[in-house]
Amino acid sequence: MPYKFRWFHLLAASCFFYMFFVPVYILILAGTIIIDYIAGIYIERSSGKKRKLYLILSLITNIGILAVFKYYNFFIGNINGLFPPGSMLPYLKILLPIGLSFHTFQAMSYTIEVYRGNQRSERHFGIYALYVMFYPQLVAGPIERPQNMLHQFHEKHSFDADEFYKGFKMILWGMFKKVVIADRLAILVNNVYDSPKTHNSTMLFIASVFFAVQIYCDFSGYSGIALGTARVMGFKLMKNFDEPYESRSISEFWKRWHISLSTWFRDYLYIPLGGNRVSVPRWYFNLFIVFLISGFWHGANWTFILWGALHGFYLVFAVLFDRQKKYFIRVSGLSKLPRLNAILGVMTTFALTTFAWIFFRANSAGDAFYVIREIFSRHWGGLQNENIFSKFSLLLSAALIFFLFFSENKFVDILIESNLREKRNANYIFGIVVLSAILVLGVFQKLAFIYYQF
Amino acid sequence: MALIRYLSIVILSSLIIMAVSSKLVNIGVRRSSVDFFGKMNAAGNRSVKVDIILAGSSRVLVQVDPKIIDSITGLQSYNYGLNLIGIKSSYNLINYALYAHPDTKLILLNIDYNMFDMEKDPYKDPFFYAYEKDFSGKFVMADPKLNFFHRLHIFDISMYDDMVKYAAIAGLISPHKILPGVYKGYFPDSSLNSFVVPPSSLMAHKTDASFTDTGMDILRQIVTLCKQKGKTLILVIAPYPKKYSPEKYIANYSAIINKVKMAADSSKVAFFDYSDNFISQDSTCFYDILHLNIKGAEMYTRLVGNDIKRSIDTAR
Question: Cα separation of B136 and A244, whole Å?
């Protein structure tokens, strides 16, 4: 296709992709794109209070749409709960546009960067629309920055066999994580979390650990497919995951998990609030509030708010007791055993994040507290619902989880980044094994990506 | 060129692996003797004479002994009970067993209050049944569009189903596995002798059992199927321990059972409700709140056996 029509082709494909879910919602997206496109130009042209005014108008539009579609019913539900039946405020009968939180944040990063002078406003409307709507990352990120993406849409890309090949391998690995691991674990997790009261502590514990792996494979799998799809076409998206479950602390976890969102909150909320260059109590507040809002970003539900608050608490707690932790490491002799110290750090972080995921996955806050209570009351028992999730599935899942954590950073990442001429045999084996595993061991039950709902 | 060669080799090799796996799964499922596929294989086994089909959930599997039924009736019975079976899979199993055993005289189906929820049926749609080609389209499916499937093919969804793979591996490794204590599908577990007390939370709040009208429609289809084929159908409800009667924790239990009773009455089908009989008064007959132990199972089977005999005699 001629270079000058490529943006149109990609934009049309993105529109088709978006309209596949609820076609009419493309009008909302188009509305915000037009407003932000004009706002970007006016912000660049003006100065002083006017410049700020245009930015605020753009932000209000984006946050307003988010508030109406995502949070209105949540607030109304909570307000209605305070008043007697009969004086209820009406709910909106609307569906949440797919990926709303992602493309809204991406659009906001554009106007903020133009306002800060880090990015020139985009004059080509089609390219700006493509920046917001680029289909590989439209519905679940990564939440890109204009500095990384906009110039790529202007550049001329020619077919690069090596890049195509690497992108293909990224898609394969992402698919493997999604359909072979995440969707298999989802069978047990969904069954247990949809009726936690009919399950014993063993099942609740297994389901909670499985969910920690499921959400990683689901979301990082999606990100891998998005990065791979873009790469096949010659575009480079930002990395969204970096082996987060190998983190030794919660703060490190957030540098490795959903990187595009955590850096968004860092750049556009945490640092503007003052970051750590403020009084100590204010710093704690900044940390806590950023994670509380991050939880709320994920969904209009108390479970997500509690999940965010818990992570905020973890971070504040870690800062508060940092000295004591270092002292303990020194006196216990762990400082002389760095490997053991690292393993303990990884295990503690995994336990804490898994505990927090209980709130993220539970259908209600009540369910989450029930699951926690039951796990800690240790009403252990045998496996339940074996017809739904057989011992074979359990063994296979355990083997796949082991394979994932053993292989991902040691082999897979290296293989994906190798060229056609390098590691020839290993690359053939990787392709055949992963594709065969997807076809033979994959679970194809039309399970949507978890992060589509955000 | 190198890229094309790579893609071709990877895709072709994977398709070959998939085709071989598909073939192995087909063979394994056909030879499986355990769980759902084992029961379906048993249902389709024409070399065994089956006069009485005993169908239902674990409340048939572990508490109706075909040896006792046979001794009372003088006929050949087979226990097709399957844990957690729903009404849809019950229909499919009975339909297939009647197809393979046209001389069957009577079908006993145990009714559970939770068997009418189509979503909860753990046995997936039978498009992965590796059985007779000409039986295609005669199963009840959650998705009628899938009705045309009757055996495994490459790219079938069955390739991806863990339950199928599990059955296939079991069938390949031990095709005619003999489970200890198994006699014609009956699985008496000697460990089921001490009563497992339910959690105290069970009785705290009454909850509704899932129920769908589609489920009731399928029960009517079972009635129609038996009538069309001229077979006697008996609906039963096995005993529950008096102290833990489902009425005490399932809010809509009576409503569900009344609907079943009305459907049975209107079709003139025998309906024996043993849920509150003399066995239910004796707590030493139970393993847990849903299942009898061996002592209770023997008592219950004799009771059922006598009612089956009377029904067959009446039909004659």
Answer: 49
Write the ipTM: 0.71
**CA A46/CA A115 separation, integer angstroms:** 10
Considering CB atoms only, which of B9, B84, B169 is closest to A428?
B9
Q: Where are the alpha helices (DSSP H) in B140-274?
A: 162-173, 213-228, 253-266
Model pTM score: 0.77
| Cβ–Cβ < 8 Å for A147, A118 | yes
Kindly report the backbone phi and psi dihedral angles of residue A134, in degrees, each rounded to the nearest multiple of 5, phi listed first.
-50, 115
Within chain A, what is the greatest distance between any pair of CA atoms?
72
Nearest-angstrom CA–CA distance, A13 and A147: 23
Task: Measure the CA–CA gap between A212 and A317, rounded to whole angstroms.
Answer: 22
The residues of A that are catalytic are 298
HSE-up (13 A, CA, CB side) for residue A86: 1
Please choose, from the candidates A225, A218, A294, the residue with its C-alpha nearest in 3D space to the C-alpha of residue A263: A294
B245 to chain A, closest Cα gap in Å: 18
What strands lie across the sheet with B77-79, from one edge to the other?
A: B77-79, B52-55, B106-110, B232-237, B270-273
Instruction: Give how far A246 is from chain B: nearest CA, Å.
Output: 30
- Chain A contact present for B12, CB below 8 A: no
Which of A54-68, A393-407, B92-106, B266-280 is predicted least confidently? Answer: A393-407
Residue of B nearest to A427 (CA): B6
- Sequence-separated contacts (24+) of A239-244 with Cβ below 8 Å: A239/A142, A240/A141, A240/A142, A241/A216, A243/A408, A243/A409, A244/A216, A244/A353
pLDDT digits (tens, 9 = 90+) for A388-410: 566 777 777 888 888 887 777 77
Report the Cα B247 to chain-centroid distance in Å. 24
Say if strands B270-273 and B52-55 run parallel, antiparallel, or are unpaired: unpaired
Cα separation, A108 vs A137, whole angstroms: 16
Q: pLDDT tens digits, residue range B69-86?
A: 999 999 999 999 988 888
CA–CA separation, A26 vs A157, rounded Å? 28
Element (H, E) at B233: strand B232-237
Q: Which two tokens stand for residue B8?
A: 């071709």
Q: In terms of DSSP H, where are the helices of A233-298?
A: 250-256, 259-265, 280-298
Helix (H) / strand (E) element for A226: namely helix A201-232
With contacts defined as CB-CB under 8 Å, which chain A residues touch B10? 428, 431-432, 435
Check B18 against A436: CB less than 8 A apart: yes
